[in-house]
Write a structure and sequence with these properties.
CATH architecture: Orthogonal Bundle
Number of domains: 1
CATH superfamily: MazG-like
Subcellular location: Cytoplasm
Protein name: Phosphoribosyl-ATP pyrophosphatase
Largest sheet: none
Structural class: mainly alpha
Enzyme class: hydrolase
Helix content: over 70%
EC number: 3.6.1.31
Number of helices: 6
Catalytic activity: 1-(5-phospho-beta-D-ribosyl)-ATP + H2O = 1-(5-phospho-beta-D-ribosyl)-5'-AMP + diphosphate + H(+)
CATH topology: Helix Hairpins
């Protein structure tokens, strides 16, 4: 059995994929995607800002909730852009063991 299929983020990704062509009246994911990439990005940005505000305020429970919203909207962006979670995991694995300072410096070369 593929252990990634058991991960909640993979299940969420699979759900969003399955709703891509659903009726926007019946699916929030379908509604977001029907409104286009700009709206998806706007919603992701709004949720990210809300997450930052809760972190600054030290509101742990709200930060948890907003973090879940950020991850959901990020996954909707991935689906819309044709990105698979494995693409992200591979990039994270590539960076693993490299300091953040080294990794950032390598991007500017």
């Amino acid at each position: 059995m593929d252990k990634n299929k058991d991960h909640v983020l993979q299940r969420l990704f699979d759900t969003v994929i399955s709703r891509k062509d659903a009726s926007p009246e019946l699916s929030h994911s379908a509604r977001l995607m029907s409104r286009g990439r700009h709206k998806i990005a706007q919603k992701f940005g709004e949720e990210a800002v809300e997450c930052v505000i809760e972190a600054i305020d030290g509101n742990k429970e709200a930060l948890i909730s907003e973090s879940a919203d950020v991850l959901y909207h990020l996954i909707v962006m991935w689906v819309d852009a044709g990105i698979e979670p494995e693409n992200i995991w591979a990039e994270l694995a590539r960076r693993e063991g490299t300091s953040g300072i080294e990794e950032k410096a390598s991007r500017s070369q």
